[in-house]
Amino acid sequence: MMDEFAPDMxxxxxxxxxxxxxxxxxxxxxxxxxxxxxxxxxxARTGSARLPxxxxxxxxxxxxxxxxxxxxxxxxxxxxGSCTMKYNPKVNEEAASLDGFASVHxxxxxxxxxxxxxxxxxxxxDLSELVGxxxxxxxxxxxxxxxxxxxxxxxTYFLHRNEMNRNKILIPVSAHGTNPASASMNGFEVVQVASxxxxxxxxxxxxxxxxxxxxxxxxxxxxTLGLFEKDIRKIASLVHEAGGLLYYDGANFNALMGMAxxxxxxxxxxxxxxxxxxxxxxxxxxxxxGPVLVKEELxxxxxxxxxxxxxxxxxxxxxxxxxxxCGKVSGFWGNFLVIVRAxxxxxxxxxxxxxxxSQHAVLNANYMxxxxxxxxxxxxxxLCKHEFVLTLEAMKEETGxxxxxxxxxxxxxxxxxxxxxxxxxxxEALMFEPTxxxxxxxxxxxxxxxxxxxxxxxSDPEALHNAPCTAVITRVDEVRAAKSPVVRY
Amino acid sequence: xxxxxxxxxxxxRAMLDAIGVKSLEDxxxxxxxxxxxxxxxxxxxxxxxxxxxxxxxxxxxxxxxKGVSFLGAGSYDHVIPSAVKSLSSLPAFSxxxxxxxxxxxxxVLEAIFEYQSLICELTGMDVSNASLYDGAxxxxxxxxxxxxxxxxSSRVVLSGTMHPFAIQCVKTWALGTGREVVVLPEKNGxxxxxxxxxxxxxxxxxxxxxxxNRYGYLEDFTGVADLVHxxxxxxxxxSDPLSLAMQKSQAEWGADIAFGDTQVLGIPMGFxxxxxxxxxxxxxxxxxxxxxxxxQTVDTEGRRAFVLTLQAREQHIKRERATSNICSNEALxxxxxxxxxxxxxxxxxxxxxxQSYSKAHYLAAGLKELGYCAxxxxxxxxxxxxxxxxxxxxxxxxxxxxxxxxxxxGVKLSRITLDRKDDSTLLVAVTEKRTREQLDRYxxxxxxxxx
Lengths: 489, 451
Ligand SMILES: Cc1ncc(COP(=O)(O)O)c(C=O)c1O
Fold this sequence. Notes:
heterodimer, A: alpha/beta, Aspartate Aminotransferase, domain 2, Aspartate Aminotransferase, domain 1, 36% helix, globular, B: alpha/beta, 3 domains, seven-stranded mixed β-sheet, four-stranded antiparallel β-sheet, 15 helices, 17 strands, binds pyridoxal-5'-phosphate
């Protein structure tokens, strides 16, 4: 049940709260065939549903006002670490809006969807080349879904090899939460691998955990600290010698396009995030797309259907592989309109542009790190890749101002906060990922903002405990939300 | 080409100097030391201008052929009001990340709260999450929830009339994990419950079904909830949300979990995605549901505010013990849904639903009159029904002739079941968007073909 709020305690009423009985926002033409006999009462709904009753303009104003209470890449700097909030080019939107893509049904005859099939085929080709894999699937709908799909492919590979004893997945302590969650959804046991003093995989700890029960290891490279795993070839040979496979979480691939390929490092399975590296908008939480690319020996076990090109006829077609495929992971063929955007981006950028994007993403991160190193300690200092992590532990101890408080201070300066409290191995962590889209002056401004916020922390800590003060609301009571949940009207 | 990278040469130089390296390549010395530097250009063509890019993209789009669509089987050509696209593409919505910072995300959070309410209202359930990937993958999440809810369980029973792709998703979820998926047989296109009790053995956690089912028929779930609950299992029903404006909601059938795909609520067919999965549950399962949930709270001034809540279920806190691995979901699609439903209101949803129903019945009756075996008449249907031809060849002739006339007349059942025995069955879907004229044209061609 919704609580009662005085009118001035409500920023924007729910549309349903303003319902006017009988008001409509869209009208259908009158039914032009005879009405069919009513549904048998055994099947017929009796209850109604409480929904808004609003005009089109009421609806337009409501959602337009809501959109003014949101913050996207189009509004300002969004250095949310691990999320690659780069600019989402407008041409991508035009491409995805083309009627020839948007209005096509997934089960049309294949001869009527050659354009869609060609686009998907070429996307898999280009992504495979980018990461050094043989082939892949586009069925995954986000990063975590790609992880689930890739691990399922590994599971199926071992099933066919009669190696079901391989029941463990090794995951570094610094990994993103989806990694262990995806492993356990696939029925794997999760074994943690320690990080060493460099913030990299602890090789001795890894060795001690490798045996014939290990199915593989999940890594992201650069890792969640933004550091390149320098021992990756060693790690790969150790894992392969033990009979396991290497899984690459592509959340951080924006650091390496055209510079290095997971396949060459020894990885066997990769997922990419088209909603990160390939510039598709994140939509306030999705939809994304998580293609999975694999080495040749794993191709038969990918989800079905595959897309094939028949040279003789010049036609593309779906191909089902029920004997070996792990099956399906989503309803149709994946988040196609997201894939259209990503392919548009690849066409536009080309091999040279993609490489330049990664180089400048790394340039921006190192430039910011160099400036901010003078303000806060870098958790694991050195050459970073596309992101880096600061620790605000000392400031917290000395002033009581936390990483969260400082992040809220950034909001008042028009900057979206970086990722907070991740990875878990860093205390009072703030993770910055500026991306290549941002200019030097934007970065300079953000570094200045951090510096002045630090000064505020020491001079007037209270001000930051109370930040932000320029947003439509102040800080929220999260405990109340979770303790007595109101999750619907 | 590089226009998305703003750096001038001078700026790049100044930034490299500030870092203390000589060149962009030097920023990758660690990669080089590790022996991982790619020493050749990628085998991908060089960059293009925006116009050159669009030429290629438009060329691909033009290779796709459109027709008057009677295709369904999980994706439907419903009317989408113009305001839906215009509002859902507002850049503050589309270019935002997940609303981790509530102070600057109230708009996104309130819209999700409205979406959750919409789903609860349609399904009759108590708690909805903020979305899942799609309806088929939501079936696997429902199975996962049920297994987690019952100790020592390993089996889920699926209705054999569920969409075959959803069944595949659940089987994939079970593959290689020790979980077991058994399929309840069907009779005359609907569930045959005679073996359900025995299939729901002690290891079973759930019975999962779908209505309208894979043929378009409505399932009769009378007594099913009691049976399933007596076996200490959960009952999950997947339904087309627009059908819920006419047919009994999941709550009315006594289900514990409601799920499905919201494509029908304003999302373009888009060759199969992005769509959006919904899931709603009874109150007591609230802390077991996968995915994000937005809740109401107050800010320090006592104003109403919204925030991501009940996060102790989720991967970023619980890691391998989370209820699901889902992180990014389909937020912009759920926003699309709530905009669509706001414009239509309950009356509009009922209208879209009942017009689809009447038009589908008009077409089915017309086909029957022409001697086609349409809708079989065994169970009621909503907006989709099967037509059984005498042979695969007859079906082929029919659909080809329709195609020559610009009509996509239906989905061959074997396209989704992958079973040759379904080669002579056509699934025909009719939405409120089809006009009398289009229906009559369909029937006129069918009449010629019937001869
Ligand atoms: C390192 C890492 N892995 C996995 C994910 C999950 O990706 P998604 O949200 O697309 O499911 C993220 C997302 O933030 C991430 O940063």
